[in-house]
Amino acid sequence: MAESAEAQKGPFPLTEGKVKGYRVGEVDEFLDRIKATYEGDAAAGEQVTASMIRRRGFEFTKKGYDPRFVDAALDRLEEVLFDRERRAFQTKNGLEEWEKSIESLGSDLALRMRRDRGARFTRRSIFSSGYRISQVDAVIDQLADRLDQGLDVRVNDVRTVRFYPQRRGYDEAQVDAFLDAVVEYLLSQR
User: What dihedral angle (degrees, nearest 10) is formed by the CA atoms of 82, 187, 60, 137?
Assistant: First the structure.
């Protein structure tokens, strides 16, 4: 009850009725860590990186923060931290090293995208479900086409892609890591 009253003053609207949202305490604690990182007050090992924001999930609960608002705020914070990380890398290692690392990332992504449909990622065992292969391949084909043609690919389109489960589907962790790398590559192109 105290958490609910405290959440009314929080930075995001709460869900109502039976609709579940992100657990308020988890979101607030993570936002505090991001703020400490941004302000330079985070202890070593406590700093939040852009990729940590991208991978962070929260438990769902009634009267939680509306995920749409939290996700939008975290997307903006991820971009701010990524830009800081890029500048820090460039200051320490130089622009040429940054460009080499991004070129290498782009090459790795292109190699994965050129693999045959149905063989781009490890498949789960016969007793496990993974991401639906046809959906993942369709998303990767579309990404490859847009990147090859020099068309704009929106970071948010990659962040919000969802896949249905399939027995013996693609390994979720591999696909998620690939999509994280695509987001990183797209952010580096700004």
Answer: -140
